[in-house]
Amino acid sequence: MNVERAESGKGRQALERLLHIAAGSTGQAKKMADFLLAWHNTEENGGWDPVDLWSVDAGIPDDILVLLC
Description:
Layout: H1 3-7, H2 9-22, H3 27-40, H4 42-45, H5 60-68
């Protein structure tokens, strides 16, 4: 987990948006929950499929990339 990135203003906003989506009941919620769990601890929570970047609404991939970079 890139804590420094998440603590930056842009990173914090991206994380908050992804957490909000993951807490929902849409088809994208599971994909965001999977990403956030893998981002937090891949060994315990399993991996995340980057192909999911192509199957979510516009803007979501940008938030994911903010946290990854």
